[in-house]
Amino acid sequence: MTAEGTLLRGVMRMRRFRFWVFGEWRDVVVDDRLPGRAARYDFTLPLLEKAFAKLHGSYAALRGASVADALQALSGGVVQSFSLRAQPRALTLRVLQTAVPRSTLLVAHGAGPSRGQAPGRAYVVAGLARVRGTTLLVRLRGPAGAPGRGAWAPDALGRGAWAPGSSEWSALGPHDRELLAPRTDSLDDFWMSFDEFAETFSQLELVHVGPDDWLLEPALQARRPWRAVLARRRWRPGYNAGGPPRCAETTGANPQFLVQIPASEGEGARKCHVVVSVTQQYEPGQRRLLAAWSRAAGAGRCGRARRRTSSYGLRALLREAGVTVSNKVLEALVLRFARDARLTHEAYVMALARLHVAHERFRSLDSRLKYNPVSLEEVGVAGRVSRPGGSPLTAVLLQMILMTIYS
Question: Where in the numbering of this chain does the Calpain catalytic domain appear (predicted)?
Fold first, then answer.
């Protein structure tokens, strides 16, 4: 692709994307090899999806991703999810009035097809306006070239509620028309009444952009920036992993922060909004592993030992962690770490650690044995543990792995 994003026929190019992962931007490079159709050369979104899938390990890993996860990865901001159905409309209005003037991106989604929105489509809340003195309107922006369906959204000719030529537009005065006119020149932008907005959408995502990104984005320069502080901490069992508030004896050991809000000049008695976001660092596939272990062993209770899980599920747990083992190695793990066919959380972690050490030892032995012949004594020992027709060298390596696990 060129700098303008057009496709060069017969040329393979690389594209670089940046995603926000646990407090830092991570670069992902992908090639532009994608299936396409004739006369369709805009590959930006498919390449972005390809890079996002590479970041998480596979396309299948994206199935459980939420809109909030994608917004955080693309923007690097603090994402705050707000349920429109569970909150009173007065609170929703207060959230909109507070967030729109700031460097906060608002995304509404969750409407059904009967409301005029295509399934899975999200809309950006681009502004607010009050007409007729009492009618509050919400400005929405849909995906480029794909306006929504329904009475409130513009059609291919730009017609819709509160669009020029509509009955709502005809009832407006000159001042209100002037207020809405600069925002109706695009089919992707349209206005909706606040009451219908609260009924149409079920979820509102607030993306609070930090001061560093605010300086780099010209479109946000007219808005008030947020102040941001980033702190990295770690929970350690027996030291500062105190558990939830119900654990009265240990919850005070959790990491604590003192937040001091300085009195801003000219603020007076206005309230200050503080948003706290806690992000857990996960490696690719670790979320599925934790979910599988939670189902098998249950959650911990105020620092006490976790429940045990059946050792018969060890193969499935290892598979969730991205590890496949042979029957012989699995048998060795069960004999070494299971007690009465039960496996504790600590034993499972130790099994993974021993597998890692055994894998590293296997790699070193494999490269070393290529240049150092096996002695007759080692071949004799290997012959007693090898399978019929198996290689003595493979048996030696298997014996080394089993010794690592048993040690």
Answer: 1-210
